[in-house]
Amino acid sequence: MELIVASAIGTLTAGGVYLMLRLRTFPVILGLALLSYAVNVFIFASGRLAIDMSPILSKYGDASYTDPLPQALVLTAIVISFGMTAVLVMIGLGAFLEAETDRIDVASDEAETNETKDGAA
Amino acid sequence: MSESSHFLFLIALLPFIGALLPGLMIRAGRTACAVFTAVPTALALILLMMLAPAVMRGEVVQAEIEWLPQLGLSASFFLDGLGLLFATMILGVGLLITLYARFYLSGDDPMGQFYTYLLLFQGAMLGIVISGNILLLLIFWELTSLSSFLLIGYWKHLPEGRQGARMALAVTGAGGLAMIGGMLILGDIVGSYELVDILAAGDAIRASEWYLPALILILLGAFTKSAQFPFHFWLPHAMAAPTPVSAYLHSATMVKAGIFLMARMWPVLSGTDAWFYIVATTGLVTMVLGAVIALFKDDLKALLAFSTVSHLGLLTMLLGFGTQAAAVAAVFHIINHLTFKAALFMTAGIVDHETHTRDIKRLGGLRHLMPITFVIGTVTALSMAGIPFFNGFLSKEMMLEEASHTKWLGSYYVIPVFATLGALLSVAYSYRFIVHVFLGPERDDYPHKPHDPPFGMWAAPALLAVLVLVIGIMPVLAEAVVTVAANAVTGADLHPHLKIWHGVTPALYMSVFAIIGGGVLLAVHAPLQRFWNAAPRPEAKEIFEWLVDSVAGLSRRITDISHNGAISRYLAIFVVTSVAVGAAAFFGSGLAAPTRGLLSVPPVIAVGWFMLIVATVSVVMMHHSRFRALVLIGVIGLTISAGFVYLSAPDLALTQISVETVTIMLLLLALHFLPKSTPKESPLGLKIRDGVIAVLAGAGVAGLAYAFMLRDIGTISDFHIANSYEGGGGTNVVNVILVDFRGYDTYGEIIVLGIAGLIIYAVMHALLDGPASRRLRNVDYSQDRSRDRHPLMMVVVTRVLMPLAAMVGLYIFLRGHNEPGGGFVAGLVIAIALLMQYMASGFAWTQARQRIQYHAMIGTGVVIAGLTGIGSWLFGSPFLTSSYTYIHLPPIEEFEVATAMLFDLGVFLTVLGAVMLMLYSLSRIARYAGETVNLEPMDYDPAKTGSGDREEA
After folding, report:
1. Which of B604, B707, B641, B597 is closest to A50 using CA atoms?
2. Quick check: is B541 in a domain?
3. Which range of residues forms the domain containing residue A2?
4. pLDDT confidence tier of residue B715, bands split at 50, 70 and 90
5. Which of B48, B121, B342, B473 could form a disulfide bond with B147, CB atoms 3.0-4.6 angstroms apart?
6. What is the predicted pLDDT for the residue at B929?
């Protein structure tokens, strides 16, 4: 079980990193989503894997439970990463509407003119 | 802690509290402003004088409040003879400067600002001299750099002022950084940052192998602050400040901070060869060099600035000698230099103020026009020259006496010769100040017809001139102060006798030679200056600018390489660096043996894993088709939710599945405006490079996760499980952690989420107000529009589902404390239910039925959560302490009510509001983009005859 969880985390990370290195906003957002999955599962797995040991206290005394702390952390992380994705989407959308392109790298000659402008100011 | 030691805190605080006043009082007029600047200074001075008798008896007044004991930092103050001397100088001259500045500043200058900066500086400076903890001292040290930056750059419209301020900040700030290092080493050697402990541990420090690094670093701080060669260049450029600032900072106080520090640390650091050769030599070089340059400066203030550099060199040299007699001379000269130099600066300021020029070449013959100024200037300048019966003579004699028997690298001549040369040059430029400004024929081409200033302006320098004469004629009067300060510096019990006549000593010959030689030098000044001006010499300002420019250029080049504007470039750098650091850590240390076995994999799970891998790979392969990629992302999210269910995390599964839903909706909405496909533009090489980086990162993370999962570590989770029910009143440990144990974190997180929602709303408005709105209006979306946008079936089903979904949400919310669920999930579920209405019946229809603003919902949620936390204060418990009780309502089972539930309500409202606000903002854009809206719930309503009404927006 540990092996397949680890490999899933690895695959999600690799996919996320590859997509984040693309040159358009949308794949970067997708990559970020994949990376968020990977990170969330990773943090969750840091509590070690357990089956049928939900951290819901049993009425019948003795029972073993999985580690609840990473779950609490991941729960908020999932919601926060949604918020972050939403902000990114909005900024990406705004950039596209303003610039009429969704490329994320600035052409080098454009960067230079900006620089000289900054230097002059 | 005695009564009187409380005064120390008050003294330290008064200037900072007082700094608030001038800005307010300026509305009541300039005099009121000056008075209210003087009041806190005077109060602090009075308090200081109440402590003075004890200090003069040889006691040390101490006061301490623990601040950050973990760091060894405490707010501790310490007043001994040296501190008393400096504190009196700072506050006393502060009063004089306040008076002088009232008349010096013109009506156009913002006076309130000036006095505020002045008091800030005064507080910082005062803090340095009465700090009893070296970390606290460092804080005040940096504060003086900052506040002097404000004061030097006070005339913001002058480029010289801004450049001078920047240079002073760069040089003294850099020195301050070095000193932090030195002080930390010192504290590490001693094991305490308290000054008392450090002063008692001199032998241990000098014996430590870290002595030399600490010494050099601390001296760097002191030398930069006190403008010692080669850092002397900032002081003349700081003269662009208004003259009161120059008189206060650059003669009396700030530049003496370095001297103070060397004196303070004298018992600990001095007495070694390293101390002698570094400090005494630097002082000697600075003294002679400063004096030479001063002689050839035509700007009155520049002359005084370099003379200050020279005299600071003299003080440094005396402290560097390391003998007790030299320390006494240094303390005495600190007092004398203060009196004559502050008065001279003010005199220069008066001359500038009255004649509108500071250029010596345009002055001369002022003695009849400005008789009072002439007398003050002459008395103080003669003291600077070291003429008998003026106080400068006394300490200069002591200096020459010490110099006459100090050996340097085996030679008895080096120091006496250069000391005499320094004294001779000092005499020359002092004469020049008198002769070239006040004597000579009266001119008729002054830029402004000069006359003596009003009393308020010459009162302060006149008082100092009187002091010059009193000490000069009756040095016995200063004996007590010098004794107590010198004892504090040396840590010994000295009884120096200050007198004018020491008999015929080598010092007397040197002095006579200097006084006569100085006169000769002035006589041949004109040809000498021509020669000096023709000679090439390095210009410190240009070297400094070059240095700053090249450092800035270097950092710009590094930035350009890593941050060229393409996010993929620095993400790649970041990922590769992270992997490299991780690999280095992994291979650099061993890995303990696994302590856990592998869990088995049932076939269903293996299938799920396979789906996940295939979906991930497919997203990467097919990301050019954006819709398809989105569908696959949904598959991944659902698979992960299922995984959470299997791996005992029901709460996570619930959250993941609902977040997944809204994320996909959000991306779909965004995709409405974005291009539907990504062009294939990456060259093969780039793809391979990125692929390699991605695989490396993936392998690294997978390996890390695998290694992690097979080993046990101690956690704090057992505490949470054990106390969840007893302390938090809930059986769902995850929820109890969220709303109770770590409620503060959750509180922060919902605020972040709320802010994210508001950001999106704000960006939406910015977009709609900007040029993008025109573009939006002209986009034609008719191609991808469905023929039946609001289908009957969907409208009816969502309408029926709405109450059901709301009830599920409520149920999940209520049971959250004991069973999987809670505010986060409930908020998301209700949000989805509402979104379904938007999707089925359209934006306008739903919007018309919305009763509560989403922003208000976010705010209410945060406020409820916050109030719940604050509520526990009423019961005397810390923020967010929860309590609970059990309620039994007959038809329902007994259930428990916890304040945590109220907190969860806040979470619920914030999550709901934020999610809705985000999606609402995106839909708003759609409506703006010329979409048609429907006022009826569905396109075709069978209850009505004919087709539904449609309106164009």
Report:
1. B597
2. yes
3. 1-49+66-105
4. confident
5. B121
6. 66
